[in-house]
């Protein structure tokens, strides 16, 4: 049984990391572009901070919802930790955030 869980987690990790990486890249690019274009006239540093916070917050809830809905029916015991790990790793490796902080 533990072998099946490991295989399941491995397979889901690969699939979900690819999906979430693509999703996060597209979402963060669009969200930050729209948010920054709306509020850039206010104050650049405040605007950037608010936009990043809002975009990542919304993205976290959507990504986890999608990940959990796919994963819960397969590996209930490890699903949440896998989804959170994949999400956090994906966010850490995304370039849109880095592009806007320079």
Radius of gyration: 16 Å
Beta-strand proportion: under 5%
Biggest beta sheet summary = none
Order of helices and strands: HHHH
Low-confidence runs: 94-102
Total helical elements: 4
Number-wise, the strands total: 0
Helix/sheet category: mainly alpha
Measured as a percent range, the helix fraction is: over 70%
- Described by the principal axes of the CA atoms, the overall outline is elongated
- Average of pLDDT: 64
| Termini gap | 48 Å
Describe this structure in words.
This protein is 86% helix and 0% strand. By secondary structure, it is an all-alpha fold. It has a domain at 31-94. The chain is elongated and about 45 Å long. The chain crosses the membrane at residues 22-55, 62-89.
Task: Describe, in short, the structure shown.
Keywords: Membrane, Transmembrane, Transmembrane helix. The chain has helices at about 1-40, 45-70, 80-95, 95-100.
List keywords for this structure.
102 residues; mainly alpha; 4 helices; disordered C terminus
Walk me through the topology.
Blueprint: H1 2-39, H2 44-71, H3 79-93, H4 95-101
Transmembrane segments: 22-55, 62-89
Keywords: Membrane, Transmembrane, Transmembrane helix
């Amino acid at each position: 049984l533990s072998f099946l869980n490991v295989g399941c987690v491995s397979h889901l990790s690969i699939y979900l990391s690819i999906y979430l990486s693509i999703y996060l890249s597209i979402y963060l690019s669009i969200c930050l572009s729209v948010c920054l274009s709306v509020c850039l006239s206010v104050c650049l540093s405040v605007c950037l901070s608010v936009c990043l916070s809002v975009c990542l917050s919304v993205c976290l809830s959507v990504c986890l919802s999608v990940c959990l809905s796919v994963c819960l029916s397969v590996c209930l015991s490890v699903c949440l930790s896998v989804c959170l790990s994949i999400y956090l790793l994906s966010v850490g490796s995304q370039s849109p955030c880095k592009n806007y902080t320079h």
